[in-house]
Structures are given as C-alpha cells and as structure tokens.
Amino acid sequence: MQDKCLINKNADYQNPYYKIQMTAKDFAKLSSFINQELGIKMPAEKKVMLQSRLLKRLSELKINSFKDYIAYVFSREGREIELIRMIDLVTTNKTDFFREPVHFDFMREVVLPDLIFNHQLKKIKVWSAGCSSGEEPYTIAMIISAFLERYQRADYTVIATDLSTRILDKARTAIYDLDRVNGIPLSVKKKYFLKSKDPKNKTVRIVPELRSKMTFQRLNFMDAGYGVEPDFDVIFCRNVLIYFDRPTQESVINKLVMNLKRGGYFFLGHSESITNMDVPLQQIRPTIFKRV
Could you give the CA distance from residue 78 to residue 61 in angstroms, rounded to a whole number? Predict the structure, then answer.
C-alpha cells in the first residue's frame, strides 16, 4: 500500500509534459502580458513558479512546448477559451476567515456604530475587492449580521470581486474544508456554518442567510472602469496591491475610492501603505482610512 501511494504521489513527474522547459523568451512574453494586462509584477525569479503552474495545462492540452502554448493562448480561439484559465493559474489566492482580525474588531466597534447610529443608514454597502475564495466577504457578513441581530436597524449587501473565475466559483458555492474553520470560535461556527450530514464529508458550508447577501463578479484591477454600483460605505482591498508596482497601486486605489462615499471606510492589508501616494484618503488607524 505504501509503495502504491508513493507511485501515485510522484505520477506527475513520470508525465513527459512535466519535463518541458520554459525558455527565457517564453517567460518574457508571458511576464510582459501578465504585467501589462493584470498589473502583476513577474520578475525573473518567478519563472520557475510560472512554469510549474502552467505545465498542467500543457499536459491537458497535449501541447509540446511553451512556444506553442503561447501561440494558442493569443490566438482567436485561445483568447476566448484558454486565456481566462491561464489567468486563474497564475494568480495567487491565499486567505483565511477573520484574517487580520483587528480590522473586523474595528468594523464591529467603530464602523458599524458610526454608519447605523450617526449616519442612520438603512442599508450598508460593502465591497470586498480581491475576495479570493470568499473567506473575507463571508467574515464581513458574519460581523455585520451579528451586529444587526442586536441592533435591528438596517440591512446590508456585500459585493465581492476577483480576477479569477475559478476562485469566484468556489466562493459562490461557499463550501470549505473543515480544517479551514478550526480557528473560529465554536459559537460562530454553529451559527454560520453547516456541517454535512455525511460524517465522511469533512466540509462545511456558509448558511443561506449570509450567502443571500453576496454578489460575486469578475473584475480586473487594470480595467479603466470597474462596473460596480458606486456609493459604497466600506471597501476592503487587502493583500492584493502587494503584487503591483507603486504607480499601479496608486491608480487602483484611486479607482476604488471613486466608488466610496465621502467619509466611507477603506481597509488595506497590514503589509500595504499609501505613503507618498496622491489618493483622497486620510489615515485613522494603521491600514484603515476614510475618504476625504
């Protein structure tokens, strides 16, 4: 049994397609496109990563070189069928429920009381920009839902966008491996997650009440306009801009903030900043801002 498992684990290495090498010219073409069209930095040290992520597609398509794969991707048929799949493979999607929890504490303690009691909003609009597989927007929904249970004065909606169609499909289904929720308090898990009735199925699903508040759509930060309904009260854009250069970061933030109400709240990831950027934001806490 052990030998069989080892053979299966190493099956990819026996596939001849996984021995195909990406040339420097191949990498230059792909990295240039990724940077120009997606805004994602792709320096030379990312060549091995890019090659490993795309080899599976070469195998599935029975394409024998990266040169031929690139020609297919940029062909008329490839742009319609393959380009989105390639983008899905090269984008990084890493997130967790309640990631960077200080932001969610601030939502509960400052943002929601301000919007509901001071501004007397009847409906709160939140945008999770770069939502990945959905953990962030569903966490936002948990925070708002719990607050509104106590103070039944408003409704809310969450718009969640990402570049990857594959990851958006996962976010829509709202099904997660059980180990993804290990760090969440039991009371929260019981309230917002459904366990499978099959004990062999080690997954959970977000409750329908939260799923009904979500709207998921694909968005490329490099687009001239973002095609979302404006006047958001809160925008989360966390741990996404780190993949862009500074001019692109500034451009993206300005386009996001155009859709934020004056006085609305804007959240960045803890490794990101707006230092020396010309953006209409005022810092009120580290990585937390208001539109001015």
Answer: 11
